[in-house]
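In this section we walk through a basic example: taking a raw amino acid sequence and producing a predicted 3D structure, encoded as discrete structure tokens. The instruction is simple. Fold the sequence below.
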Amino acid sequence: MYRLSVLLRNKIFFPCCCCFPEIHCPSPPKVQHGKYRALGLEQYTSGKIVKYSCDPGYVLIGRATIYCTASGVWNFLTANCMLHYLNGRITRSKGQVKPTETITFECDPGYILKGNHTIQCQFDSTWDSPTPICVRETRCQPPAKIENGNHSHHELSVFTSGMSVNYTCEPGYFLTGRANVHCTASGTWSSSAPQCKTWSQPLPQCEGQYFPAYPCWLKTQSK
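The resulting token sequence is shown next.
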């Protein structure tokens, strides 16, 4: 189909010497988990606009529309349909995400992020890393207190999965059991709390000094 240019002269239309072909674009690019709406158009001519939307359960990131350019190609597609972000939110400074720009993920209270907090849009309309997820935060009961000793972080009241504490004894006592325990993903501590005990025999003297928590005979045997 050709568009005929005309010249108005004395209210009489004269055809120009040249005819210009109408510019068409190919079918719009597809977006995974989404679709586009072109208002029933069968041909996509220069200047025509199509709008994208996402399937249920997905949210649109980027610009929702593209248009057919005068060179017969679509302008750059930035629309991405991402799974609805459960138990969190996506933060970004602009509604449109262009290549090299990033979006940041945050989780709701009581949830922690697994994956990268920030992902970057690539020039091929993909992301540089998988979308992170928000999982429920696992907590352990405060570590058990021990007689004649203490543990690190005793000032805290909340202990989440992955946190660890170290137990130490007061002078004159030695530790039996694991000094370091950590909060597991199941909400329990990796091992039971250790104990602080006293030596049953008199403390020997080493080079003129006493070592209440580390007697000389034990130091000698460890060599």
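Looking at the output, two observations stand out. The first helix runs from residue 216 to 221. Residues 5 and 16 are 6 Å apart (CA to CA). In the next section we compare this with other chains.
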